[in-house]
């Protein structure tokens, strides 16, 4: 069974929503998947992104904010029985399927930003753990040789040899021109919070990009992707938050 959200107010269940598509929006306007007609709710208040068995919540810079389990929250990796609060309304997340992404991995992917200021050299500290962190979560590594850095610990090569090719994102403009990132996680979030954010999802049958945040949708080969997940092909060019990047598959 797919995960679901149970909408309630004052302990009374109003409606149940199956998370049967990749992006579910929550807001006051009727075009949202979960429309809550209340002035405390922003026009497009929040979104829930579901990839395989994993879901995460993101507040879309709403006026009054959102709570998850009683805590003000912008982004949250959802786990079974989590409760989202928007105004007087509650959305309980139910998912009895095992997740494929840990909360720690989710937090790492969320810090990815394409258009960032150059970081100090200390960002590429020492040790295998630092090297792995840089290659998997830091798109703003200062070294142009990020591609050649050993991003996998020595013990991993045997396990990291899947039959399917590994996808890579390469920056084509801006201060990070030439930087590359291997998409080794199930979920990788790219963009600039508050401007434009998208999720790249690795699935058994390919890689997909989904819009998460921002007033406009990302472009792929010059065309907008819209609200639905868009499958990426080898050498597609993505435009996101003013940054162009090429998606390609490593042989």
Name the features.
251 residues; mainly beta; six-stranded antiparallel beta sheet
Structure description:
By secondary structure, the chain is mainly β. The protein contains two helices and 21 strands. The strands form four sheets. A six-stranded antiparallel sheet has the order 2-1-11-10-7-8, with no helix packed on it. Strands 13-12-21-20-17-18 form a six-stranded antiparallel sheet. A five-stranded mixed sheet has the order 4-3-5-6-9, with helices on one face. The radius of gyration is 19 Å and the shape is globular. The model is unreliable at 108-152 (pLDDT under 50).
Shape: globular
Count of extended strands: 21
Record the strand order, biggest sheet: 2-1-11-10-7-8
With helices defined by DSSP (H or I, 4 residues minimum), what is the helix count?
A: 2
Radius of gyration: 19 Å
Structural class assignment: mainly beta
User: Which band does the percent of strand residues land in?
Assistant: 35-45%
Mean pLDDT: 76
Largest sheet: number of strands, sense, barrel closure: 6 strands, antiparallel
């Amino acid at each position: 069974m797919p995960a679901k959200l149970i909408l309630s107010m004052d302990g009374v269940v109003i409606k149940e929503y199956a998370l049967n598509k990749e992006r579910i929006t929550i807001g006051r306007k009727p075009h949202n998947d979960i429309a809550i007609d209340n002035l405390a709710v922003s026009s497009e208040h929040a979104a829930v992104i579901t990839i395989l068995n994993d879901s995460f919540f993101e507040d879309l810079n709403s006026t009054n904010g959102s709570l998850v389990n009683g805590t003000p929250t912008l982004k949250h990796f959802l786990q079974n029985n989590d409760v989202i609060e928007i105004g007087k309304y509650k959305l309980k997340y139910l998912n009895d399927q095992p997740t494929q992404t840990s909360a720690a991995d989710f937090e790492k992917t969320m810090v990815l930003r394409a258009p960032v200021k150059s970081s100090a050299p200390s960002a590429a500290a020492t040790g295998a753990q630092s090297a792995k962190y840089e290659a998997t979560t830091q798109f703003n590594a200062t070294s142009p040789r990020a591609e050649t850095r050993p991003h996998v610990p020595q013990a991993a090569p045997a396990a990291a040899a899947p039959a399917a090719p590994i996808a890579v994102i390469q920056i084509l403009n801006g201060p990070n021109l030439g930087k590359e990132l291997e998409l080794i996680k199930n979920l990788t979030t790219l963009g600039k919070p508050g401007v434009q954010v998208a999720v790249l999802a690795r699935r058994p049958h390919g890689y997909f990009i989904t819009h998460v945040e921002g007033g406009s949708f990302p472009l792929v080969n010059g065309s907008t992707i819209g609200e639905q997940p868009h499958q990426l092909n080898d050498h597609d060019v993505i435009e996101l938050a003013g940054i162009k990047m090429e998606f390609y598959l490593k042989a």
